[in-house]
Amino acid sequence: MGRLLRPEDHERDHEARTARTRSGVGHTVPSTFTTGYRYARMGYTTVIEPASPPLKQRHTHHELNDIPIIDKACFPLVGNNWIAMDLLGRGDIQGCAAFLAWLVSATKGYALKVVNPGGVEAWGWGRNVQSLDDQVPGFNVTPREIIRGLCRANSMLNMPHRLHLHTNRVGIPGNYEMTLKTMHAVRDLARGDEPILHITHCQFSAYAGGSSWLSVESGAERIASYVNHHPHVSLDIGQVVFTDVTTMTADGPFQHGLHLLTGNKWCNADVENETGSGIVPFRFSRGNVAHSVQWAIGLELALLVKDPWRVYMTTDHPNAGPFTAYPRVIAWLTSRKARERTMAKVVPRAMKRCELPSIDREYLLSEVAIVTRAGTAKALGLRNKGHLGVGADADIAVYEFNPRQLDSARDYRKLRCALRRAAYTVKDGSLVAKNGEILRQPTGRTFWTRVDVDDDLRRATMKRVASSFEQYYTVRLGNYAIREDELAVSAPLDVEATV
Predict the structure, then answer these.
(1) First-to-last C-alpha distance (Å) of the chain
(2) Could you give the angle at which helices 82-89 and 143-156 cross, rounded to 10 degrees?
(3) Are the CB atoms for 448 and 110 separated by under 8 Å?
(4) Does 127 score more than 90 pLDDT?
């Protein structure tokens, strides 16, 4: 639907067919083949689709099957699922965990994604949730109970990735307090120093300065300080890039608010019993104070969180910027000079609301490797990715510069240029791209998690699921599950639950 809403997006940015590649279109929402080519050209070989409605996940896999070269996985949305909320409202954490084990396996998903827990269900009634303790309409549960319950269920299932959370009140001025409360709400559930909660595109959840866009300012320092002192949380930044974007999320009420704020085109959908969605085309502008503050917040999060293994570089593609902007973001992280050049072009008073002008830190190239590869692979539990050790997939990106000679802080343009086109991209030991030219198009794997739970609990869960499908769904239970042979190259990860 995002592609349909952006015809100009395809007219302005397209790729011609070559002897080895197909034609394609799209800047913010590129077509499937174009997506694979552009990631491979930049040297990326594994990409995650982090928010997929379970009922629509067959379509997600159809698109993933169509994307060449790269390995991929998808995260089913569970934070507003009727069955999950009903079980959590009854205090049945084990039953909820068993249901989620079935759901992930049935939809060939990889990890659990939560968007505006309880708020998307409330949106079906024209409402939203405003605090962690608001009651979700129709269910005896609150956002706090959803988040805590799903964190516990995620741990019981031994899922490869921590709970992936899009917080309540995303994109609303003053929401940094909600983010801090959310992170603190699960602190007692932590096991050792391993994160149990991941805050995604945290830039959109880090606004201070009251409740108005006219007074919005950065809350990144307070969020980064919390993360620095509490190892149970990780985040990715969702870096704003000054360009056209297509905002799309399961957070229906946020998207409606953005539509009212901008007057831009808007699409809304409800996915029965599971989640919702919204799409609004948008443009981030240097001449807008709020947009300039948002740009600064993402960089502040990346630069103020001390441990690069717990903060990851993203543009929340396609919401804050297309993934093709990664080289530009890396240049901002490695070079204060690059940041200053951009700061000189934004609205001057915007920088008075941020910490960015006073931050001297510049990423080392080793830290870039962590926040774009090693750290993300570790956080996702992809043991064969993100390193060059024994048993690793032979996925390697080689860039045309000498790190001993290039001063990335001073010569950031050379770094940015090199990162746009990897000299060589190697996938599973074979050269797939050279200096921007696609040489081969192997079919990438689709990772998914197959969870084993207690047989008696599984049978009881399936009885409940069958009853719920008969009562609420428009599809039959037998048509819901995705067969393994529907994946182009299936790569299951077997895990054994403690329930």
Answers:
(1) 39
(2) 100
(3) yes
(4) yes
